[in-house]
Amino acid sequence: MTGASRVSEAELHAFVDGQLGDERALAVAVWLAEHPRDGVRVDGWRAQNDAIQRAFPPPARERVTLAFRAGESDAPLTLPPTPAIEDFRARRRRRRTLSMAATFVAGALAAGALAMFVQRMTARPIPTDPIFVEVATVSDEFARRAVEAWRTYAQDPHHPVEVDARDMAGLTKWLKERTGLARPPVIAAARLLGGRVLPAHGENAAFLLYRLTSGDLVALLAEPGARSPGAYSAGGVSARAWSLAGFDYALAGATPGNRLDAIVAELGGPR
Asked: Is 57 part of any domain?
């Protein structure tokens, strides 16, 4: 809810009957534009009222009197203005105005939503990276999670890891107890910075962060499983996923793809 305060059932009926003040009636019109279900209900009540009025027109005391006065005259019967008639006409004009305002607001909101949708769809880049095309066919969710984990933690300047690798014994024991990973894999020409435990689908995943000699950071995500090899790439961050000895691994980083491939092969992944 963005444009109006909450509207009660009684106010909706009063709106249909034209019993609300101008300010509250306009607020109800905005509410109806933002809540299509209530708008459908109000339209139904209006249609029901119109049908009842057509079937049972209200009696007019003045009309009976004038009919007797007219006698056999064929001249059209015209009612003189009375406070009741003028009030009815004013309420009908106000109801039409509010209905037009509600229609305009609803149309404006719909047009804005459509414009935002079209803008997002037309601004979305067409993937041309072969790695991205590959994931579009294999849908490697695990590799995508590795990329998201890298974005979240590798770029954190304060707490990229929970347990520092300087406490290797504590890190190894902790990861084994929480994830089942026997020990952090060793990557040549890279230094292990530490690790985290991340939630996974029914299991815990180990997140390990390494710094390459080039200064780049790569993250290794590991959890029990046996997925097929896959890959993912988005926004300059790529990931390779594979399985080995009952564990799924995914290596992610903003580093050249051939360098990632070499590390994956070193860790026992596909060459």
From this structure: yes
Res 61: pLDDT = 52
CA atoms within 13 A on the CB side of 209: 28
Last residue of a domain, one of 80, 99, 123: 123
- Which tokens in the block code for residue 121? 């769809």
* Number of domains composing the chain: 2
Residue 82 DSSP label = -
Helix (H) or strand (E) holding 194: strand 190-199
Among 108, 123, 138, give the residue marking a domain's end.
Answer: 123
Residues 196-238 have pLDDT tens digits of 999 877 789 999 999 999 999 999 999 988 888 888 988 999 9
**DSSP letter string over 115-165?**
HHHHHHHHHSPPP--HHHHHHHHH--HHHHHHHHHIIIIIT-SS-S-SEET
Amino acid identity at 38: D
Domain that holds residue 62: 9-123
Total Cβ atoms within 10 A of residue 213: 9
Q: Is 202 left (phi over 0), alpha (psi -120 to 50) or beta?
A: left
Residue 1, in any domain of the structure: no
In a domain, 271, yes or no: no
pLDDT at residue 228, as a whole number: 83
Do 60 and 182 share a domain, yes or no?
A: no
Residue ranges of the chain whose pLDDT lies below 70: 1-4, 57-81, 84-85, 115, 117-139
